[in-house]
Write a structure and sequence with these properties.
Length: 505
Amino acid sequence: MSELALGIDIGTTGVKAVLIDKEGNLIREVNKPHDLISLKSSWAEEDTAAWYKNVVTAIKELLASGIESNQIKSLGISGMVPALVLLNEKGEVLRYSIQQNDARAVEEIKLLQQRLDPQEVYRRTGSFINQQHVGPRLLWVKRNEPDVWRRLRAVCGSYDYLVYRITGKLSLEINWAVESGLFDIWEQEWIPEFLEAAEVLREFFPPVRRSLEIVGEVSPSFAKESGLRAGTPVIAGSADHVASALAAGVREEGDLLIKFGGAGDILYCIDELKTNPRLYIDFHVIPGKFLLNGCMASSGSLVKWFVVNVLGQDATPEILTQLDREAKRVPPGAGGLIVLPYFLGEKTPILDPLARGVFFGLSLHHGRGHIFRAILEAVIFGFRHHVEVLEEMGCNIRRVFATNGGVKSQLWTQIAADILGREVRSFPGHPGSALGVAFLAGKSAGLFKTWEEIELFLRHSRCFIPDETQVKLYQNAYSVYRKLYEDLKSDFPLLQPLQHIEVKN
């Protein structure tokens, strides 16, 4: 029987579980959907019970395919970061998770900006206070949900929570800490004065672990529920975008990944720790490597929003294929229709939680193909904005990779090549973060000896070459995209009072 590694990813729209072997084979993959919950404007939450149920169900399905539990030598979990899961003294979840793309803590961001020196925050954490940081969101809970705060005893992330449920051991993988805004990335320790400003106790945070560290074993109770073997080692896991970077072969300085997930990530590999105020920074799972990280709050979630909320249909492969066909008949620039993709505010590179989605240039001749194409283009315009920031830093982009659900669309990936003006290598059948964290689990168990062995899983790819005619056509559309936000950014705060008006029966 072959030895296997299990990787599980807790994504914005579902759980994915994969089994891999040391020869570079993807043995089995299972997907279980769940929903992003947005009860109010700018809120982004998820139900941790749905995550757990999907994880158990996915593992059972993997084992039902004839896999023996003793074949699985190690387990790793990746997930959205830094999502907030709040636990009481019994380790029970106190409320829905508050996701990393949640933008509710506007007043708390302002308050922390008054309490802390922005330059000191940037110097020690690598970023200015923003909606992704943990401090503002925790402070929001304290100010708005005092009963939850009174019972709060521990804080962890999405994948850390599942590691806890599986092993009974609480931990925080290092990139959750790095992206929290409360952790010194140079000294690798919590910053007492930042915790005090956010009114957060140091005791809330479990021990910080590196991705490959084994933090525990599959507990007897979880083994009974899932079918896994009790005692199977479980590693600390990985932030989803970092696992995706590894899974796409991003190993050397100059490698760039664009990730078409529910949110949009862009990661650039560097050999030394350096920061930029318009980007985040992460520790690569490969020792001695780092990742400059851009994150757009909305990407694939915009596609799902359009199909489900506007068209009133399920986001099935069939409807997405049909929309691709309609959008392909529309020229670059979507017939003069430009979209700002800031439906949940925006993180990098503009760091504006008050920004909102905009459809600019609508005319009666526009149909759903125009609108759909404009949404696809908007996400890539956002990626291009990040590329320009990297170029301003003197970063030389060597190779561009693309992963996750959006690359199943050849149209969308070709749009990426044309707007970026670079060859893009995509992995349409690639399980992304789940593969990356499965490889980490396998490496911890000795299935893989070197980081280069990730190439065993990258045999099937597509290459998209930019069309120079299309590249030129996109120059004007991109210029309008950039100008549009600058023209509107001072007006977005005017929408705040309107977002809180309730209908009275």
